[in-house]
């Protein structure tokens, strides 16, 4: 099967027990079923891909052009649309649903999400700086960045210097996450360890070809 994506929602973390009694921390993700909204082919679009949908919502909540576009699949309207590149689009058709059945227990997959936003953060929180000493003449500078550049030459701060600024709220991917358990009746998939994003955050599960 070609590499496919599945869109899900992060429900949170818990733990399960392995066959030998070991404790396994897992992240619970509710994924799918994601219907195929559009099939793109090399003849009509210049490349082969699938457009899948997730998070259904009433038709009046989307624009009229989107209503007409998504109605062709006959599965209703969805809040989230995502394009997935595939090698052979002829294997799929509009309205076909992708679910957690595409994965197997023990499989390694890639997980992508949007990390938690931390707002404006200082250098100690953002870059794990050690900070200034607490005594010996240091006053009100304990969490400051410290020296950031030079004096006469080159008289500027180099690009890429680690400084305070916006932290988090970025696209983050975790590779080779292990599938611990799959519960198709509830559209749930359990992954070992943590994945990016807050609770109810949108998560993309990518099956490797």
Automatic annotation (TrEMBL):
It comes from the Bacteria. One of its GO terms (cellular component) is cytosolic large ribosomal subunit. InterPro entries: Ribosomal_uL3, Ribosomal_uL3_bac/org-type, Ribosomal_uL3_CS, Transl_B-barrel_sf. GO terms for biological process: translation. Keywords: Ribonucleoprotein, Ribosomal protein, RNA-binding, rRNA-binding. Pfam families: Ribosomal_L3 (PF00297). One of its GO terms (molecular function) is rRNA binding. Part of the 50S ribosomal subunit. Forms a cluster with proteins L14 and L19. HAMAP family: Ribosomal_uL3_B (MF_01325_B). Belongs to the universal ribosomal protein uL3 family. One of the primary rRNA binding proteins, it binds directly near the 3'-end of the 23S rRNA, where it nucleates assembly of the 50S subunit. This is Large ribosomal subunit protein uL3. It comes from Desulfohalobium retbaense (strain ATCC 49708 / DSM 5692 / JCM 16813 / HR100). The gene is rplC.
